[in-house]
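Weekly structure sync, notes
Attendees: PL (lead), two postdocs, one rotation student
Agenda item 3: pending single-chain targets
PL asked that the sequence for the first pending target be pasted directly into the notes so everyone works from the same version. It is reproduced below exactly as submitted, 399 residues in total.
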Amino acid sequence: MKSLYEMGSRVYQTVFRAAIPVMPYRQPERLYNEDDLVDTLKRKGITSVLCITDEGLVKAGITEKVIAPLKEAGIKVAVYDKTVANPTIRNCREARIMYYDNSAQAIIGLGGGSAMDCAKGTGAIIAREHKDLRDMRGVLKVLMPTPLLIAVPTTAGTGSETTLAAVITDEKTHYKYAINDFCLIPSYALLDAMLTVSLPKSLTATTGMDALTHAVEAYIGRSTTKKTRSQSLQAVRLIYENIKEAYEHGDDLKARENMLNAAYLAGCAFTVSYVGYVHAIAHSLGGQYGIPHGLANAVILPYVLKGYGEVIYPKLKVLAIAAHVASEEDSDEEAAIRFIESIEKLNADMGIPDKLKGIKEEDIPMLARRAAKEANPLYPVPVFMTADELERFYFEIKE
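Predicted structure, written out during the meeting:
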């Protein structure tokens, strides 16, 4: 039974890979400061926008830093600040009401991946106002233009500013799922390192490891291209060279800028080449228990890499060389082990645990089924696993 399931998944992935050259992938146009944002909106004749963010960023004054220049330029700004850590269907519906009430013409997603995902989900239900967000789960279920989407990341990690995915949680069932459609790729991404300098050390660490997970999973999968491999390698190099500096010295603008660039590159890579079981497991945990996505990815990554085994050793060697933790003279196995150990050391050095609290043993079969349903057949993973096989990882990471 597994062999037939795997065969069908591989055929599905092969078709998607063959279609990459003709599919409408694009990268958001980069903006570098708030003046660029004002100029862009004015050029497009936009006079009213909805900014989707969270309460923490409002209280920290970061939201005002971005929207004040818009107000000064005569652009009306409504702020939806109720986004939760794993954005829900309710969040998107509430934001949609605010969009219409303020006659907005564009949406700004300001924050980490949660705010940007909420902005995309809101855009999706505006584009398809008579379709339930649950029915857009999966691939190419929106298929209509959204309002202009502008992503403003305040963390260097999620890559949501570049991707075609919105990850939304059904607050009733605690099921976290992805909506994937080209219309959800933001038109613009404002990458301003100053917006990340006040990020707490813990979030600097986990969002940075989130970006590393994107780069690694995009690289080791079976649907890579020359461009996505290059982007992944650049992202890994930048992360290893800058994450500890950004963590220890949050006001180092160069390190912050390099981490933003790494997150952007990793996001571009996995938009085309997809992710794998690390993300599928992390999404199941985020939906069920509210575990932050970056933290989950950081903890899970070394376990899954070990679980894939020697099949990925040659690719891990290339990543290890990019990370400066191995050399050409090392065997594939030696380099792969060093790379996985370096991930574990990065986690430990930045206070990220090697286990996750709150996982209930009785939930594991259900969580594994959700992860398998998300990953198979979409994710071109290096080693195919069923729900039963994925259960082991939940037991390994469970505190």
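Discussion points:
- The chain has a mean pLDDT of 96.
- The first helix runs from residue 2 to 19.
Action: rotation student to compare against the earlier draft before next sync.
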